[in-house]
Amino acid sequence: NTEPGAIKVPFNATPPVSRIDPKKGQTIKIMYTGSQTLPSDRESVFWFNVLEVPPKANKNENSAAQNTLQLAFRTRIKLFYRPQGLGDLAGEAPAKLTWRMKHEQGKSVVTVNNPTPYFVSFNSIELESTGKKYIVDGQMAAPLTETSFTLKTATTISSGKINYSFINDFGGIINATASLQ
């Protein structure tokens, strides 16, 4: 929600504006400028915003063409910067996550520890305990940190397993299971 001129990011997108003809595509090249020093021991994440605006309806056409609904779409894409020294071991990061439960202010909180230098993006997280399943709202586990997700239901859970799916580097969704510690 920040004004475009106020955003300072170390990337340039080329071309910044383009026209895309029907049934065609456009490649956008994103280049790291080096204007900001980013951590060399872990990934960094940014949001790449794309605004798709349809052409204005032609007023010279018949009245049926003028009664159209046109929508503009704003798409947000995660953009990960991975320093060269990290290598290609991001696919192994989800297996190294450790999960545990804690209780804060009467609510159950699922905590995930990510000891790797890679972000793990979740598609879904589900806690299974004593035959019941609870949906956990979680999006990403940041590198080298512990991230907490609060359960919506106010229940006390001490054991169980986590069924989760994560998004790999190619956009594929991989299912995994882990036990609570």
Structural notes for this entry:
This protein is mostly beta strands and 181 residues long. The chain folds into two domains: 8-86, Immunoglobulin-like (Sandwich); 90-179, Immunoglobulins (Immunoglobulin-like), CATH 2.60.40.10. Helix content is 2%, strand content 43%. It has one helix and twelve strands; from the N terminus they run E-E-E-H-E-E-E-E-E-E-E-E-E. The strands form four sheets. Strands 7, 8, 9, 11 and 12 form a five-stranded antiparallel sheet that branches. Strand 11 (161-167) and strand 12 (173-179) form a beta hairpin. The protein starts with 10 loop residues before the first strand and ends with a strand. The mean pLDDT is 88.
SSE blueprint and pairings:
Blueprint: E1 11-14, E2 29-32, E3 44-52, H1 63-66, E4 73-81, E5 98-104, E6 107-114, E7 120-129, E8 132-136, E9 140-141, E10 145-150, E11 161-167, E12 173-179
Antiparallel strand pairs: 1-2, 3-4, 5-6, 6-10, 7-8, 7-9, 7-11, 11-12
Write down the overall geometry.
globular
CATH class of the largest domain equals Mainly Beta
Termini separation comes to 38 Å
Instruction: Decide which structural class fits the backbone.
Output: mainly beta
CATH architecture assignment name of the largest domain: Sandwich
Low-confidence stretches: none
If you compute it from the alpha carbons, what radius of gyration comes out, rounded to the nearest whole angstrom?
Answer: 22 Å
Order of helices and strands: EEEHEEEEEEEEE
The total beta strand count reads 12
Largest sheet: 5 strands, antiparallel
Portion in helices = under 10%
- The CATH superfamily name of the largest domain is Immunoglobulins
Annotation field: number of helices: 1
Family: Belongs to the periplasmic pilus chaperone family.
InterPro entries: Ig-like_fold, PapD-like_sf, Periplasmic_pilus_chap, Pili_assmbl_chap_C_dom_sf, Pili_assmbl_chaperone_bac, Pili_assmbl_chaperone_C, Pili_assmbl_chaperone_CS, Pili_assmbl_chaperone_N
Protein name: Fimbrial chaperone
Subcellular location: Periplasm
